[in-house]
Amino acid sequence: MAKTSPIEFVKQVQTEARKIVWPSRRETVMTGIMVMIMTTLLGVFFLGIDSIFDFIVNSLLRLAQ
């Protein structure tokens, strides 16, 4: 692989940086809302699973006494 001079490297980085397309404000807000909804749903789901396992383990421990 050919060596690139630091100046050429900086030019290449600037060229690539110009190709970046940033999301609009609306896209950012919608993505943030979707993340909040999904994390809430997953939190409720895992709370339910944890509660079920807690009930099962406590029931088994009560039977063992």
TrEMBL record:
Instruction: Report the Pfam families cross-referenced here.
Output: SecE
Q: Is Cell membrane among this UniProt entry's keywords?
A: yes
| GO biological process terms, semicolon-separated | intracellular protein transmembrane transport; protein secretion; protein targeting; protein transport by the Sec complex
Membrane-topology descriptor: Single-pass membrane protein
Q: Where in the cell is it found?
A: Cell membrane; Membrane
Which GO molecular-function terms appear in the entry? protein transmembrane transporter activity
Report the transmembrane regions from the record.
28-49
| Record bears the keyword Membrane | yes
Sorted alphabetically, the Gene Ontology cellular component annotations on this record are: plasma membrane
The UniProt keywords, alphabetically, are: Cell membrane, Membrane, Protein transport, Translocation, Transmembrane, Transmembrane helix, Transport
Range of residues in the leader sequence: none
Q: What does this protein do?
A: Essential subunit of the Sec protein translocation channel SecYEG. Clamps together the 2 halves of SecY. May contact the channel plug during translocation.
Q: Which family does it belong to?
A: Belongs to the SecE/SEC61-gamma family.
Subunit description? Component of the Sec protein translocase complex. Heterotrimer consisting of SecY, SecE and SecG subunits. The heterotrimers can form oligomers, although 1 heterotrimer is thought to be able to translocate proteins. Interacts with the ribosome. Interacts with SecDF, and other proteins may be involved. Interacts with SecA.
Q: What is the protein name stated in its UniProt record?
A: Protein translocase subunit SecE
Annotated source species: Sphingomonas leidyi
